[in-house]
Design goal:
4 helices; two-stranded parallel sheet; alpha+beta; single chain
Length: 81
């Protein structure tokens, strides 16, 4: 499953695609910086094209009320695990 392969690189630090890991971590850091700067605690944030939900979880951990949304049924099943 491609989603789990992405999780290995993005979340668990698998170094098989270091470039992907760095891009993901930089993007997530920028998103979280913006949320901390501009959003109030409990802010409602829709995450579109949310993929396997890593950003969604990070935003929820920062106190946001997050709605996961993606077109892929496979991903919906994956995040429910």
């Amino acid at each position: 499953m491609k989603s789990f392969a992405n999780d290995r690189v993005e979340v668990y630090g698998d170094s098989s695609d270091r470039h992907h890991t760095i891009l993901y971590q930089n993007r997530l850091r920028r998103v979280l910086d913006m949320v901390e700067r501009y959003a109030r605690p409990g802010a409602k944030i829709p995450v579109l094209a949310a993929a396997q939900g890593n950003d969604t979880l990070s935003l929820a951990e920062h106190g946001c009320d997050v709605t996961w949304n993606d077109i892929s049924a496979e991903l919906a099943d994956y995040i429910e695990l």
